[in-house]
Amino acid sequence: MKRSDFLFLCFIAVLFLPFVISGGLYRFYSAFNDSHGYITSFIKFAVLATAGEMLGLRIRSGQYFEKGFGILPRAMIWGCLGVAIKAAFVIFGSGVPAVLANLGLEDPSGRLAGDFSGGKLLISFSISLLLNLIFAPVMMTLHRVTDTHIMNTGGSLSGFFSRMNVADILVKINWKMHWGFVLKKTIPLFWIPAHTITFLLPAGFQVLFAALLGILLGVILAFAARAESDL
Length: 231
Known about the structure:
This protein has helices at residues 3-21, 23-35, 37-61, 71-102, 108-113, 118-152, 157-160, 166-172, 175-183, 186-200, 203-230. The protein contains eleven helices and no strands. Helix content is 84%, strand content 0%.
């Protein structure tokens, strides 16, 4: 294990250890998360999903940082995506049970809020399915566009805030990889099952769990980048 690997593990441990050993800190987090869910979503994704991308870079190149990687711009983008994901959780978490109620399922919202059952699993799966079929492809493509813009502008904040030529970036995206792996494979094989688990959790933990999945996303994107380079 390299020294950088040890420091990365220590960083992850420092993020979560206080919540394990301090009941007061955990209660503060819970209260703040309940009152300011979108702020905490921004912070969770900015930190954890960016850490996931750094881990992905470690897998691809053997190091957690390289020139042009753009940690700050990536953190800003992930924070904004975190806010969008939180909003999507609210929209789909409320809207899908309403649709299921219209289709004749008895009290889907109550079942979702209750203890684990077959009905709760079905509702959680339904939310995850529609979330990942409707929202996720747009979000993943937007992330690919912003990620490319960050790399094209050298990873600097000033470059990031320069004009983004979305049309040119969309043309140059490797759609064979983006569709064939990122969308076609990771959504049904990973994200739909993972977010089914997410919606089985209490509401206060859903966005945190989703942000933790962002670390796994970094690993997935690393393997996607490796496969793309081999094409």
